[in-house]
């Protein structure tokens, strides 16, 4: 039922939060390879466990472990790309983000198609088997050496967490993640309730959001090598604002998915550009710095959809979707402040 489904999603979210918290200091101290291998193995075993889970508490445990492993690999993959990119960090992070979109749109679509022919248990077991592919990839290639092989300097770590510029970027991503989660979580419901669309059509329209993100990040991989990241970020904020107001104001079933496409397109720049700045500023402790910003970002991702639901229940989803343009304005203010700050020496 909905209560149990909600509790399971919350359990996995806390697992992702924990994974995002712990990966940074570990990769700075011990490197990426072993941690990635362990987490991929955990995800593989947990998916296979879900396929045969006899009790609800088994399911809760496996989802929590998937959350931890996913949080580590998501944050760690971004930190790794930043570490191996001497130049064009944001461009390469943007390309990495394309594959997140592929998974977000491809896996649910594939599951929906396969469920016609196979049981969900069998499909989940098959998906778990696919995790062996990245697991093998983690085993064989050479990864960067640990940045703090003699031991993690606690004093420098505490100093890093107190860096006002790092916290500023973290709260920029708090709003970024919140807006992304709102669009991904509530758009299909918006189309059903505000436009009276069929459930299947509403879900189909949601794919325009992910297509917008994937398209923009492919383009950003090219543009960020040629145009100022600051200029691009404000252009993309403008595109997202246009999409948000268009979606709030229109009742057209033609314009609404196009508006959602613009929201996804405009929001796509936030993570790769901000993480690029963090990777440049805190290169010696990039893993720990990424942990800080991802944890704060996930708090936004968990709280914004809840707030959207509360406002939507009280005054409708059109009103609650104002959280996206408000978030974009807050993002712009914080980003402008961050740009002024990074002209001063901030690196560690």
Summarize the structure.
With about 350 residues, this protein is mostly helical. It has one domain: Growth Hormone, Chain: A (Up-down Bundle), CATH 1.20.1250. The protein is built from 15 helices and no strands.
Strand and helix layout:
Blueprint: H1 2-30, H2 33-52, H3 56-84, H4 89-114, H5 120-130, H6 132-139, H7 154-161, H8 164-195, H9 199-223, H10 229-249, H11 255-267, H12 270-281, H13 286-315, H14 317-320, H15 323-341
Helix pairs in contact: 1-3, 1-13, 2-3, 2-5, 2-6, 3-4, 3-12, 3-13, 4-9, 4-12, 8-9, 8-11, 8-12, 8-13, 8-15, 9-11, 10-11, 10-15, 12-13
If you had to describe this structure to a student in words, what would you say it looks like?
82% of the residues lie in helices and 0% in strands. It has 348 residues and is mostly helical. Helix 1 runs parallel beside helix 3. The model has no long low-confidence stretch (mean pLDDT 90).
């Amino acid at each position: 039922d909905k209560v149990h489904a909600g509790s399971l999603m919350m359990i996995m979210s806390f697992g992702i939060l924990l994974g995002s918290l712990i990966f940074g200091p570990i990769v700075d101290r011990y490197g990426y390879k072993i941690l990635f291998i362990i987490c991929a193995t955990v995800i593989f075993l947990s998916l296979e466990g879900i396929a045969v889970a006899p009790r609800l508490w088994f399911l809760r445990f496996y989802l929590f472990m998937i959350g931890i492993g996913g949080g580590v690999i998501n944050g760690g993959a971004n930190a790794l790309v930043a570490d191996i990119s001497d130049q064009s960090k944001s461009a390469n992070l943007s390309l990495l983000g394309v594959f997140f979109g592929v998974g977000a749109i491809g896996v649910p679509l594939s599951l929906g198609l396969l469920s016609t022919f196979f049981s969900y248990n069998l499909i989940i077991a098959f998906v778990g088997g696919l995790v062996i592919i990245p697991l093998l990839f983690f085993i064989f290639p050479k990864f960067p050496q640990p940045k703090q092989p003699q031991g993690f300097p606690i004093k420098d770590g505490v100093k890093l967490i107190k860096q006002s510029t790092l916290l500023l970027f973290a709260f920029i991503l708090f709003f970024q993640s919140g807006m992304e989660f709102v669009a991904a979580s509530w758009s299909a419901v918006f189309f059903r309730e505000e436009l009276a669309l069929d459930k299947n059509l509403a879900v189909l329209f949601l794919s325009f959001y992910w297509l917008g993100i994937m398209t923009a990040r492919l383009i950003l991989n090219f543009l960020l090598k040629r145009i100022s990241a600051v200029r691009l970020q404000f252009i993309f904020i403008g595109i997202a604002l246009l999409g948000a107001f268009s979606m709030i104001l229109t009742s057209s079933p033609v314009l609404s998915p196009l508006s959602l496409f613009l929201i996804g397109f405009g929001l796509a720049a936030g993570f790769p550009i901000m993480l690029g700045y963090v990777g440049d500023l805190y290169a010696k402790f990039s893993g720990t710095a990424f942990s800080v910003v991802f944890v704060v970002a996930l708090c936004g991702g968990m709280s914004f959809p809840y707030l959207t639901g509360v406002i939507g229940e009280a005054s409708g989803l059109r009103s609650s979707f104002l959280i996206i343009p408000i978030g974009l304005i807050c993002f712009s203010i914080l980003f402008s402040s961050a740009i002024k700050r990074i002209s001063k020496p901030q690196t560690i």
